[in-house]
Write a structure and sequence with these properties.
This protein has seven helices and 15 strands. The chain has 435 residues and is an alpha+beta fold. The chain folds into two domains: 123 residues, Peptidase M64, N-terminal domain (Immunoglobulin-like), CATH 2.60.40; 238 residues, Collagenase (Catalytic Domain), CATH 3.40.390. The protein has a six-stranded mixed beta sheet, sandwiched between helices. A four-stranded antiparallel beta sheet has the order 4-3-6-7, with no helix packed on it. The chain has a three-stranded antiparallel beta sheet with strand order 2-1-5. Strand 12 and strand 13 form a beta hairpin. Helix 4 crosses helix 6. Bound molecules: zinc ion. The site of zinc ion has 10 residues, from helix 7.
């Protein structure tokens, strides 16, 4: 073998190794180069009506913890009605990207939004930047287009970024499995539990997380989670229920009758929710409301909420986390909702478990057996089959779901359908910094 030939082989090998390595490195943003271990909180108001959206900045705040991940800083998920993007000002490089949804956008699809304007408080968090950034917040217009609501430079040394001691409360560690940057960090917050009821809250977190970890894929990936509870008491026990004339002084101001729908239990006081959550590193907020009536709500990368003491709470919380944590859509279509035309039937929705068949190949089409017809008849022949069953996303026609039943469809299923399980599994891996 000639010496030149050996050198050539060596060079080819070197190129291959180098090419592979740099390809991998290029796909990941080096966290420590751009970010510290803290968080930057961006607070603003979204206001408008059915057709207009305006973003008004309120405050920036530094928070002590970033729950991670330190990898996957550019989220691979095209989920959510909004997106936050962070660019390094000097190089123009995109260094952080994440989708999210809001209660405001849901309200925009109600009848009231055609008659008046309203505003909703909104908070996003990003890892705290080391250098000046260009910050963008965008709203989805169609399946593929976004409009920019905010575009601003931010110097991390700006002295208007609030750097005060957070409102502090005792923290109970319910499950601890490792470094927050490589685990999913769930923070449970108590709404309407008085200081005498803090032990009840802790017991409720244990009971409801036991339910969560009894369903696949959570069941098989338990060790990927840290669970913490912030022991923040309310003045009064319970929560607001305007339809029954009940008003309680509580720490995070949750209320039934969101959009005049009795069971829809949310809070617009996102500022208080985030102030309490800031006590710990977290990836997702789950609020337990100390009440017996059926109710809850979940908004993608915003929060999940459920009452704690209804006999269905162990399923409701898991369903709401399907929305809040994993970006899943509702597969039901027979219950009353406040929304009008929530999904446009001529566009593919972004939720991974719903399709209008406009772009089915971008969804779970590859999980179907070749012999399964699309749409799939809702008959006993296809009872345990992945398909495209008509009815989902609040409408009986034009929106299709992957399976006859699922936790995202009803309160009495055997678990998540295979498509939802896969979507949740991918979200867990994302927060653990894995592919
Ligand atoms: Zn499902």
């Amino acid at each position: 073998m000639s010496r030149t030939f050996i050198i050539k082989i060596f060079l080819v090998l070197l190129f291959c190794i180098n090419g592979t390595l740099s390809g991998h490195i290029l796909a990941q943003i080096p966290y420590a180069k751009y970010f510290t271990g803290q968080s930057l909180r961006i607070d603003y108001l979204l206001s408008g009506n059915a057709t207009e959206t305006k973003l008004t900045l309120d405050q920036y705040k530094i928070e002590p913890f970033w729950g991670g991940p330190e990898e996957n800083l550019l989220s691979p998920f095209k989920y959510g009605e909004f997106r936050i993007e962070v660019y390094d000002k000097e190089t123009g490089e995109l260094i952080f990207k994440k989708g999210f949804s809001t209660l405001f956008q849901e309200w925009q699809t109600t009848a009231e939004a055609k008659l008046m304007s309203r505003s909703f408080y909104q908070v996003n968090r990003i890892p705290f930047p080391r250098n000046t950034i260009l910050l963008k917040i965008l709203k989805r217009e169609t399946d593929k287009t976004y409009v920019t609501l905010l575009e601003t430079n931010l110097d991390p040394g700006n002295y208007f970024i609030l750097n005060e001691k957070p409102l502090s409360f005792p923290v109970e560690v319910i499950r601890e499995n490792g470094d927050p940057s490589h685990k999913v960090d769930l923070v449970f917050l108590p709404e309407g539990y008085t200081s005498e009821e803090m032990q009840d809250f802790r017991d409720d977190v244990v009971r409801l997380t036991d339910s969560l970890f009894s369903f696949s894929p959570y069941k098989d990936m338990k060790s990927s989670f840290n669970v913490r509870a912030v022991m923040a008491p309310s003045e009064e026990s319970g929560t607001d229920n305007p339809g029954e004339g009940v008003y309680k002084n509580t720490i995070m101001n949750f209320s039934y009758y969101t959009f005049d729908l009795a069971r829809y239990l949310t809070s617009k006081d996102v500022r208080s929710i985030r102030d309490v959550a800031g006590n710990v590193p977290y990836d997702h907020i789950v609020v337990l409301i100390n009440a017996e009536s059926y109710g809850g709500g979940g908004i993608f990368n915003h929060y999940s909420a459920s009452t704690s003491d209804n006999y269905l709470s162990p399923i409701v919380m898991v369903h709401e986390m399907g929305h809040g944590f994993a970006g899943l859509g509702d597969e039901y279509y027979t219950s009353d909702v406040a929304y009008e035309e929530f999904y446009k039937l001529d566009e593919e929705p972004w939720e991974p478990n719903l399709t209008t068949l406009v772009d089915f190949s971008s969804k779970w089409e590859s999980m179907l057996e070749k012999t399964t017809p699309v749409p799939t008849p809702n008959t006993s022949e296809y009872a345990n089959t992945i398909g495209a069953f008509e009815g989902g996303g609040y409408v009986p026609k034009g929106v299709y779901r992957p399976y006859p039943d699922c936790i995202m469809k009803s309160n009495a299923p055997s678990g998540f359908c295979p498509v939802c399980q896969e979507a949740i599994r991918k979200m867990i891996l994302y927060y653990c910094g894995e592919e």
